[in-house]
Write a structure and sequence with these properties.
alpha+beta, 12 helices
Length: about 270
Amino acid sequence: MTTRASLYHARYGATDVAVPAAGSPIIDHLLAHRSVRAYLPDPVADDQLAAIVAAAQSAASSSNLHAWSVVAVRDPERKARLSLHAGDQPHIRQAPLLLVWLADLARLEAVADKVGEAHAALDYLEMFEVGVIDAALAAQNAVAAAESLGLGTVYIGGIRNQPEAVAAELQLPPRVVAVFGLCVGTPDPAQPADVKPRPPQAVVLHHETYSLPAQADGLTRYDAAMAAFYASQGMKVRGTWSNHSAKRVRDAAALSGRDRLVEALHALGFPLR
């Protein structure tokens, strides 16, 4: 039987983590999240998709602008092409549904034109950030909703590897760009996904003011928790989480093509003033 304590132990990769007295079924549901990269071929029904998108639209939206959209991709050939654009990830091809989340300023431009207003503010970095943040908030609601329906998900940051190619594949107009993908489907029980530990709260939670030194002990503990996780999953990760993370920020090559993202955004209609 899954207990609240076991959820916290799994989430932090430690049995000595304090379990708060406060709790709820929603928090328990969120604590059990895991990334799923193996799916059954069962389709995600239109009814399920409609419920997931309704949950996504229930997320907060900056100034009620709704500066995001999502493209649902089911066609196997299109998913295969998008997989190649995103680093050739097999779970994109395997998942019955790929949701591509977009920062969408084209709709606001069209609305402004319709009512005879200027739209110069759309050229600024702030509005691009609004679109990205709105998309992220909506997508996380979608993840929670999908999991409540018994589906599994995994985010695809690689959708930003080749922004122009993805835009062409999805026929995106100027001022619209894919910010991440999301695989959705029924998890394959033969390849169950485990909960990946998160850093102790002392690493991410600050009181009143920020402190980098205060995180040191928590990061040491997290390295140990992740080493145990890597071993349990048979993952060939050299060194600790710190080593692995440092390699991901070492140089431009580590960004897998995303080092030219500003150039791509300019080409896709985002001046980013």
